[in-house]
Amino acid sequence: MRRREFLAVLGSIATAIPRAGRAQQAAMPVIGYLSSKSESAEAGIIAAVRRGLKDSGFVEGKNVDFIYRWSDGNYDRLPEFAAELVRAKVDAIAASGLPAALAAKAATSTIPIVFRLAIDPVTFGLTRSFDRPGGNITGVTMLFDPLTPKKLQLLHELLPTETTIGFLINPNNQNASSHRDHAERAAAAMNLRLTILTVGRAEELEPAFAAARVGGIGALLVGDDPLFDVLGHELVEAAERHKIPTMYYVRDFVIAGGLISYGPSFDEMAKQMGAYLARLLKGERAAELPVQQPTKIELVVNLKTAKASGITVPSILLTAADEVIE
Questions:
Q1: Taking residues 249-269, what's their average pLDDT?
Q2: Mean pLDDT to the nearest integer, 277-306
Q3: DSSP conformational letter for 203
């Protein structure tokens, strides 16, 4: 081979190497993460999703990438965010919260979707059944509504003399009617008077608590909602400021100073979400992955908050608690 031809071959090889590298990099799968919350409110969940992916060999930035879209509790932004992810041709969509899941489902019938939400997905038309979801969507659900009677019971055991209970919901969430129906039936069965309070934006939180105080509400139950996760610290502070004992739906609020919570572990369900995303990236079909449900429900009590509020926590609750913060 002549010297000039030899150099030309070497040059073509050198040029081909970075091209091959770029092609390999371009083939890295991309997950679109569509959240009903804010980035800060979702930090722990994202960490658990990454753990679920890592257990199956996927590490962000190494062999899988993410495109994140945060609605910050403004659900009107979700349809356009979902459309952006579809246009980006992501390989899968992770939809956090019912509003995000509905927006993702409306945006695509082909890209596989894994949801993480707190409602019956069959009732809301997301899946055909729990065992065989059908279509391009599956995920994990925490099923908070069926827990409402137990939460009211625990709240009543904690404060047996309080018979007027407030129930906080977000009217902008598609699950608001379901939350209200379950709570009203549970309260009626316990001969409790239920007052519905609505907060759909951050600026409505303080007026709602002020109205609850004026209206003689003796205790408050917070319905699960992504907006309330975004406003977690503000919720806890408002309950303390207005001296309204409050029951939350996950332990995060109690860790932040809230009084009591009863619900599944966000971390457990988020990790399962990551595991399902990994299975989709490996070629499994969403239609054949059954919807997962929580395996454990946690009762968490903040004894320090109770003492500061002058509340004596019955020993039966302390014994039953999975975690007591002192």
A1: 95
A2: 96
A3: G
